[in-house]
Amino acid sequence: MSRKIDRNRRATVTSFDMRPQVSKDDYDRERTRWATQLEEFNSKLIASETANSEMIINRAELNKRIIDLEKNQKPMMEANRKLSDRNKHLQQELKKLEQKLRHSQDDFFTLRDTYEREMKELQVLKEKRVGPEMHEELLRYRNQCLESSKCITALRNTLIDKRKQYEVLVQKFKQFQKLFKKLQANEEDRFSTMGSECSGASTMSLNTITEDFEQDQFNIQTLSRENAELQKALNELLLNAADLNEENFLRDQTIEQQQLLLEANQDMMSQMAQLKSTVMQQLDQIKALDQQVEDLTQQLAVQIDKNDTLEFQYLEIEQELKNQTAILAQCSTFEEERDALRTEIIKLRFENGELRQNHAREIASLKECNATQSVSNFDDERKTLVQKIESLEKQNEAQQVTIQNHEKQIQELNTKAADQIKELTDEVQALTKELSKIRFSYQGSEANLKKEKKMTDALNEQLQKLYENTNSDSVKKDAEIAQLRQKIVEQETKFNEIAEEKNKVSELLKNITKEYEEFRDMQRPEIKTELERRFEETRYRLNCALEKIHDYELLIEAAKKAETDGKLSEHLERELIEVKEFNAHLERQFQSQSQIIEALKGKLLKHRNFCDMLAKLTDMDDINNLVEQLEIYVNENTYDEARVAANIVYLINVMKKKMFYSPLQISTAHHQIRPYSSVDSSGEWQSNSSEGIISPDEQDEEWASASKTASR
Biased-composition ranges for Polar residues (predicted)? Predict the structure, then answer.
């Protein structure tokens, strides 16, 4: 809504309350404006709440979807990770295999070279076998070479001495020539200076000089002859030395060749000796193993004999135990017989007592009857019975003695049997332990024998295989190398194809990115709000203007090159200047609009925070706490929402007091409305006030002054 505000109108002040008076129309306008703003505010709050709830629901749904996607993607991620680990492992194994292949190739080539070299050397050595006669000839040639070298050194020393002597003689000859020249030059002076008195002496001195000169001349001639002879001898020696050098060189070559052959033979002999030593060592090891086998067999035989003896002893002990059990059975029968005898003795004693009682009764009856005959008969019977009883008692005593003896024997036998059983159990345990040890050692010895036999068999097989598989390994390695080379060639071709495809794909990617950038530049964004629409329109116009400027510049350059007239260039320059001015104007508009958008964004954020605070306060039941929170908010903040909060506090206080205020008493100090202005796409300023178009700088100044007065 656009409305006009009379800025020149001054508020009247009453004499009582010092409050500005407002007209009814202004009050109605303000009321309707505030009502519409409250309705808009409520509608915005409801819309924001609905949007917030929808956003929360969408957020929950998105979180659920994200969780589901993560759950679904976890196995894929694990599988991908496993595949990546497997690929890494395979790459490492491939690298290791390639390294092994390279090492094996190098080893194969080195082995092949060494094998070929050794085969050639063997062939050469076979062709040039050296016997003892050749060895003697070599020694003889060596001695001759040594003697000839000694002769050559002696001749060289003599030549050096002769040359030294010749040089000394040449120096002396030169000295004599100098002296002779001096003597010839000074002869005239000497003859003129000498007198007649010393003429004889002078002639004598001249004669001595001539004699010395003749001797020197003779010596020089002899020396020259010797020198010529020495030169001839030297030339002959040099010629002979050349021949000798050739002969010596050939001899040295033959000697060196023979030495090489001898060294090769010695190496072969040493290798053969080493091989023989290894063979002998292996034979010694085999013999030692055979000896160990024999020792183990002997030990086994001894252990078997011991086992037989132990089994025989065990059988004897079992027989003794059986005998002892039989003795114990006899003892038990003796005890049974003893018990039977005891029972019989008890019965006889009982019968004897009964007989005595009967006898006493009969005696009493006989006394009463005075029958002498019956008494005599009875006495006879009694005597016979007494004799029987005495004989039975004797038998009983003898049986008791025998029983005691038997019991003693049984006790002794029991003690002996227990001792023997203990000894036998101990011996049996020891024998079982020894048997277990012997069996364990026997098993270990058998295992060792088997292992050693297997080792010997394996060594023999390895020796045979080493001789047999050298050629097969070389053939296999050659085939493997050929296959690997083919694989390498195939991989190189594949790699080249992949590189070509990669280059093609990169070129396609570049073209697609270029097309996408061009399409994105050409594509206009979505229109969301009015400000963003204006912003995008200005940016689009700016880009179009820049493109036009670029086109005009190109046209100007083409016009400058093509046309000689300056009219078109001037016209184009004017258009270019106009376009540049228009571009500058658009840039200023763009900057101002971007600033306005940033300010509006800040205000929207503040308004959103204020709305969130109000939404929280609506849930509060206590009005006092609500008022305190609003007052804290008013004290902490200074922007427009703080003023709205202050007005809400004021209204709440009014509602608390339950007082009715007239509309004229409402302070408008807290309700100052800041006019806003914006730039339309046509370039004109729009305002929410009814005063017409005002520049934003003037509005800012008026707003600042109004806010200062309100704060005061």
Answer: 678-692
